[in-house]
């Protein structure tokens, strides 16, 4: 079997660990970079390092951001009347794409999953409760993923939040079961938001 020199092998191995990059693609990227303009390669490596050094979590909603609070929490045009609760920062993107939601978000940073050892205490639920009281929130839209972990999280949240006298809704059915919000198209998401029902 052909053996690459050490630095090439190391980069192929690193790229191969990325989502949807197999051995073949990793090799192709490495050969592309070998031929590419050194300035472009420098820019790429700088951009990779920057996302780990400059990006942090918003102290209000846990969204990923370069400035704290994030641009949604600090936008005066966004209302605190409605807070949409999602599992991960990338779930926000599919909801934002619909242009239907003018409220704010709260990112739990996961979902309840006993099999993976994730309990409610591992999620940003306490912080959500504090926000509901402090920001005088009127409606909580639970937009956890339509799978068993997301459903378990939604049910748990509805129980915990009930005494807070806030309206609790869940995105409408119609989202493909087992799907991830990240991959839901705009039209399906708009319908799910419009058709949300009270818990
Ligand atoms: Zn924020």
The CATH topology annotation of the largest domain reads as Dna Topoisomerase Vi A Subunit, Chain: A, domain 2
The total beta strand count reads 7
Specify the CATH class of the largest domain.
Alpha Beta
Supply the number of helical segments. 7
What does this structure look like?
The structure is a single chain. The chain has 2 domains: 6-53, RecR Domain 1 (Helicase, Ruva Protein, domain 3); 67-198, Dna Topoisomerase Vi A Subunit, Chain: A, domain 2 (3-Layer(aba) Sandwich), CATH 3.40.1360. It has helices at residues 6-16, 23-35, 38-53, 89-96, 125-134, 148-161, 186-194; strands at residues 56-57, 64-65, 82-86, 104-107, 139-142, 167-170, 197-198. β3 (82-86), α4 and β4 (104-107) form a beta-alpha-beta unit. α1 packs across α2 (23-35). A 5-stranded mixed beta sheet has the order 4-3-5-6-7. The protein has a two-stranded antiparallel sheet with strand order 1-2. The N and C termini lie far apart (60 Å). The longest helix has 16 residues, at 38-53. The protein contains 7 helices and 7 strands. The chain is α/β, with parallel strands linked by helices and 199 residues long. The structure holds zinc ion. Zinc ion is lined by residues 58, 60-61, 63, 69-70, 72-73.
Brief synopsis:
With 199 residues, this protein is an alpha/beta fold. The protein has helices at 6-16, 23-35, 38-53, 89-96, 125-134, 148-161, 186-194; strands at residues 56-57, 64-65, 82-86, 104-107, 139-142, 167-170, 197-198.
């Amino acid at each position: 079997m052909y053996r690459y020199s050490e630095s090439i092998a190391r980069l192929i191995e690193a790229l191969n660990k990325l989502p949807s990059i197999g051995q073949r693609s990793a090799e192709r990227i490495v050969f592309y970079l070998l031929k590419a303009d050194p300035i472009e390669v420098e820019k790429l490596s700088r951009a990779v390092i920057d996302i780990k050094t400059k990006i942090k979590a918003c102290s209000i909603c846990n969204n990923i951001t370069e400035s704290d609070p994030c641009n949604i929490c600090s936008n005066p045009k966004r209302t605190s009347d409605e807070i949409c609760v999602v599992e991960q920062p990338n779930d926000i993107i599919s909801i934002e794409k619909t242009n239907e939601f003018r409220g704010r978000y709260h990112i739990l940073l996961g979902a309840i999953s006993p099999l993976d050892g994730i309990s409610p205490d591992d999620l940003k639920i306490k912080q959500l409760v504090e926000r509901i009281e402090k920001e005088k929130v009127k409606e909580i839209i639970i937009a956890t993923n339509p799978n068993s972990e997301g459903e378990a999280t939604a049910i748990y949240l509805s129980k915990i939040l009930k005494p807070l006298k806030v309206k609790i809704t869940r995105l409408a059915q119609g989202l493909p079961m087992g799907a991830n919000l990240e991959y839901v198209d705009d039209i399906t998401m708009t319908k799910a938001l419009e058709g949300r029902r009270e818990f």
